[in-house]
Amino acid sequence: MLREFRLSAARRLKRKRQAWKNEFYQEVKDIARHPVVLRMKLYPHHGSTNCYQHCMNVAYYNYQWCRFLKLDAKSAARGGMLHDLFLYDWHTHAAKTGDRFHGITHPEKAYQNARKFFDLNPVEIDIIRNHMWPVTLFGVPRTKEGWITTLTDKYCGACETSRRK
Ligand SMILES: [Fe+2]
Ligand SMILES: [Fe+2]
User: Fold this and answer.
1) Where is the HD domain (predicted)?
2) Which ligand approaches the C-alpha of residue 152 most closely?
3) Beta-carbon neighbour count of residue 76 at 10 Å?
4) Mean pLDDT of the chain
5) How far is CA 132 from the centre of its chain?
6) C-alpha distances out from residue 146 to 32, 129, 143, Å
7) If we measure between CA atoms, which residue out of 140, 137, 90, 135 comes closest to residue 110?
């Protein structure tokens, strides 16, 4: 009896996650197909993962967690997709520009790029500008979705780096 209940709960959760996966792509597809966003594919990020794939990973986990917690999953996914839209290779950025504080400066750069091409709501802005907390000491998230992004970003970054070949 208990086993059957557990199995049907697991099946229901699996179906729900599959449905959320499909809904996720519908919510971000205009961003994911935008030429400026596609440029992130040119820039390596963590390990063998490029910037575009990293943003897609963060957006996906943001969406799943925020759906589960009944938060603004759509904004969490869209903000996640844009959170690293700084559009350069950070590995060579310091040598080329003299900016040795990429970790601190790139959220603002990503925000300035994103606002040129997309209408951003306050949750999306919070996600992009404050995702690097605690590295950006005073850039503290103001929304629950922003806090979730500080975790999903670091989780995805760690997974991507550990898959380095
Ligand atoms: Fe970032
Ligand atoms: Fe990131």
Assistant:
1) 52-155
2) 2
3) 31
4) 94
5) 11
6) 20, 9, 5
7) 90
- The predicted pLDDT at position 164 comes to 60
Q: Fold for domain 2-162?
A: Hypothetical protein af1432 (1.10.3210)
H or E element at residue 5: helix 2-32
- The per-residue pLDDT for range 128-158, each reduced to its tens digit, is 999 999 998 889 999 999 999 999 999 999 9
**Per-residue pLDDT for 165 more than 60?**
no
Q: Domains of the chain: which residue ranges?
A: 2-162
Ligand having the closest approach to the CA of 156: 2
Which-ligand-closest: CA of 157?
2
- Which residue in this structure is represented by tokens 């400026």? 36
pLDDT digits (tens, 9 = 90+) for 78-134: 999 999 999 999 999 888 898 889 999 999 999 999 999 999 999 999 999 999 999
Q: 16: CA distance to ligand 1 center in Å? A: 29
